[in-house]
Design goal:
The complex is a heterodimer of chains A (about 450) and B (about 300). Chain A has about 450 residues and is mainly alpha-helical. Chain A has 17 helices and six strands. Chain A is about 70% helix and about 5% strand. In chain A, helix 8 crosses helix 10 (about 225-265). The two termini of chain A are about 25 Å apart. Classes of the chains: A mainly alpha (about 450), B alpha/beta (about 300).
Chain lengths: ~450, ~300
């Protein structure tokens, strides 16, 4: 045991002292914040206001558009119904306007619905088109209602907005928006595990290859068992990785606060609302915020955190044993590609399943099955956990994960034992299989 | 003399390839034991089994009266042929680490390291990184790492490769000093002159089988050809030739001599050297009379190609 701790210590120190580790640790959060700040800066820049000309031969709609003109709005509408369409079209090609809405005169409004044109040099955004359609449709509806002699005010009053409350059978009330928080939490943890596995699994592999190319390996395994060396390496590297993550988290948080203070990024609502509206909104908001907070506390926090730790350890160890075995089998990193792909596949697959399937149906067949399969369970199950998973599913999943982990470590140790003493050969899958039988 | 290491009928197979075929060895305590054999004979496989890097398929190994166990790695020092060190680690740290893996405490390891660094004149290297050292310098460090924990059994695989003649001599003297202190040394090399110089026992492995084993002098006796190199000054060459060809097989020889003498290689078969001498002295002045002792090189080539 003391030998393993000796190896862990050496691996940890070797990783932490490495220049690229130091540089990465302190530079990546800076880079990350710089990029985030840059994006924030870009999006805070005002987009150019687009000039939209309206040629409304009916005279019914132009006003509704012009009414929308506001300072700092993305579009400015100009009623140019008096000007000849041909001249307007020319001014579009000359880029004097960004777009031209032509509403022709028709026999009736029904006909008009499919006669309106929008002319521009660049194709407009979908949201702009939808908005334009909405304005016109709303107006036509209003006119139609008036023609039918219906009381529009009464109709407005008659319209209802339904807000369904989600309540679980166990009696807790839950909020709709909470699902997004759940996905956010599960997704963040799942993604974190994937990143950790890829970054530090690779580090384990590189360190195995390094010992091979240094030719120190034979000196070392005449003193320790290959298995001890492998486990020590995996643990030592993961500790270095954890340290890096913790430093990142601290620096990242600090920089984020500093950046938001510096750039003056507004967190609250930017548009001015009348005091009464604000009052009522605040009441409503504080009510729902309270509910969110209480709901957050109702999340299976303990099981999420315990689950994160268990799946993190299980998943990381499982995958790094693969990485260690691959490192032992090859002579240099370029040869490792053919073996790495099958490892990356389940990782990527599980993230996709997490973000597409689990989000739609956290307890559907696909989500349940992939949260049982050991190679995908660390990520998929973590994403399911915030939605509440029956304990027996967790039990099966965890025991499968650890059973596989021990099996894989055993296999990996065999390949490792043979591989670290093999030089000059680019092994094939068939050969790896043969090594298992030695 | 009892044996420090006994290898009993060890078999090792890699797939269909038999690397060791029921190989047995007895390494006497306090000896320098030359493990010889052509490339691919199975030497490294055997050495790795003794170091418990790999396990034998069958057979057993007795070290100092006990069956080989994991704890024994602390009593063995191994200098592999393919050797290296962590290039980006400092010399001192690295040696401490490797010594601790062999079961030394940190304090003990430090004392031993200072002793050896002093002895080999490399005191100033403690804070250097391996990548700053030359190959020969790194080899010295590896030698220190190998002997640091005072192992009972030392296994050197081509220990002199990479050393200049001066440093090779330093290492050779250290090996002899270790033997004086009671260590048993297994020595695998292709340099026959160093086998001749250092070893008192040898074994020859060829194509996965052990062909020869024993005391170097015994092995040489076994391979003696009973032929003598003779230098003689005589006026009557024909008479002399007539006399000796009656009894012995004669062929011309070449060796260095200050005399302008007749040089012959004479195979005496079952006769005694005196019988040959009697005939020679009757016919002339004997200036040179030496039994031709087979060199390890001769034995090696004869066994491997024969």
């Amino acid at each position: 045991m003391s030998i393993i701790s000796l190896i862990i210590k050496r691996e940890f120190i070797a990783k932490v002292r490495n220049k690229s580790f130091v540089v990465m640790t302190f530079l990546s959060p800076l880079l990350f914040v710089a990029i985030a700040g840059f994006i924030g800066y870009l999006s805070s820049m005002k987009a150019e206001t687009k000039q939209i000309a309206i040629h409304d031969e009916t005279g019914l709609f132009a006003n509704d558009f012009v009414k929308q003109n506001k300072k700092e709005a993305a579009f400015k509408y100009l009623d140019l119904s008096q000007i000849d369409t041909k001249a307007l079209k020319d001014s579009i090609t000359n880029e004097r306007f960004d777009g031209l809405i032509i509403i022709p005169k028709t026999n009736n409004l029904k006909e008009l619905e499919s006669k309106i044109e929008f002319i521009s040099n660049n194709s407009p955004s979908i949201s702009f088109i939808e908005k334009t359609q909405d304005v016109i449709a709303e107006k036509i509806t209003k006119i139609n209602l008036e023609k039918a002699k219906l009381d529009t005010l009464a109709i407005q009053k008659a319209q209802s907005a339904v807000n369904i409350h989600l309540i679980k059978a166990s009696g807790e009330e839950s909020l709709k928006g909470l699902n997004e928080i759940k996905i956010g939490i599960g997704g963040a943890f799942g993604y974190l595990i994937m990143m950790f596995i890829i970054i530090y699994g690779n580090m384990v592999m590189r360190s195995v290859i390094e010992e091979k190319t240094n030719r120190i390996i034979e000196i070392i395994i005449s003193s320790v068992k290959p298995f001890q060396l492998m486990i020590g390496k995996i643990i030592g590297t993961s500790l270095a990785g954890l340290l890096q993550f913790i430093i990142w988290a601290i620096i990242g948080l600090g920089l984020m606060f500093a950046a938001s203070a510096f750039f003056g990024v507004n967190v609250g609502p930017t548009t001015r609302i009348s005091p009464e509206l604000m009052q009522s909104a605040q009441n409503e908001m504080s009510g729902s915020v309270q509910m969110y907070i209480s709901e957050l506390w109702n999340l299976p926090i303990a099981s999420i955190i315990i689950g994160f730790v268990i799946y993190f350890i299980g998943g990381y160890f499982l995958y790094s044993s693969f990485y260690a075995a691959i490192g032992a089998a090859v002579d240099n990193q370029t040869d490792s590609q053919q073996f790495l792909l099958p490892i990356l596949m389940p990782l990527i697959l599980s993230v996709y399943i997490g973000f597409f399937t689990v989000v739609n149906d956290p307890h559907g067949t696909i989500a349940v099955v992939f949260s049982m399969i050991p190679l995908t369970s660390p990520i998929v199950m973590l994403m399911r956990l915030p939605f509440g998973v029956p304990w027996w599913q967790i039990a099966i999943s965890v025991s499968l994960l650890f059973a596989t982990f021990f099996l894989v470590v055993w296999f990996a140790a065999k390949i490792y034992r043979i591989g670290i003493l093999m030089y000059g050969k680019k092994p094939t899958w068939k050969e790896l299989y043969r090594w298992l039988k030695y | 003399m009892s044996n420090l290491l006994e290898v009993h009928k060890v078999v090792k197979q890699y797939g269909d390839y038999v690397a060791l075929n029921e190989v047995s060895l007895n390494v006497p305590k306090g000896s320098i034991y030359g493990l010889l054999g052509p490339n691919g004979a199975g030497k490294t496989s055997l050495i790795r089994i003794i170091n418990q890097i790999t396990l034998p398929d069958s057979g057993e190994i007795i070290l100092d009266g006990e069956k080989l166990q994991p704890k024994h790695v602390q009593t063995i020092g191994y200098l592999p042929e393919e050797r290296g060190l962590y290039t980006s680690m400092k010399v001192g740290e690295q040696c401490l680490y490797l010594a601790q893996m062999k079961g030394l405490s940190k304090a003990e390891a430090k004392v031993q390291l200072e002793y050896w660094f002093d002895r080999l004149g490399i005191q100033g290297w403690w804070n250097k990184k391996i990548q700053e050292l030359s190959k020969g310098m790194a080899q010295k460090i590896q030698f220190v790492v190998c002997v640091l924990h005072k192992p009972k059994l030392l296994i050197f695989d081509e220990p002199f490769s990479g050393f200049d003649p001066v440093n090779a001599n330093v290492i050779k003297d250290e090996i002899l000093a270790l033997k004086e202190q009671g260590a048993t040394i297994i020595f695998s090399t292709h340099r026959m002159e160093s086998v001749e110089e250092l070893c008192d026992h040898i074994a020859l492995i060829h194509k996965s089988n052990k062909l020869i084993e024993g005391k170097l002098s015994d092995v040489k006796r076994q391979f003696r050809t009973n032929s003598f190199e003779v230098g003689i000054l005589t006026d009557n060459v024909e008479g002399l030739m007539y006399d000796i060809t009656q009894k012995f097989t004669v062929s011309p020889a070449s060796f260095k001599s200050l005399n302008d003498d007749l040089k012959l290689d004479i195979q005496i078969g079952n006769a005694t050297p005196n019988e040959l001498l009697n005939i020679l002295t009757q016919r002339g002045q004997v200036t040179h009379f030496v039994e031709k002792i087979p060199s390890v090189n001769d034995i090696f080539i004869q066994t491997v190609t024969g």
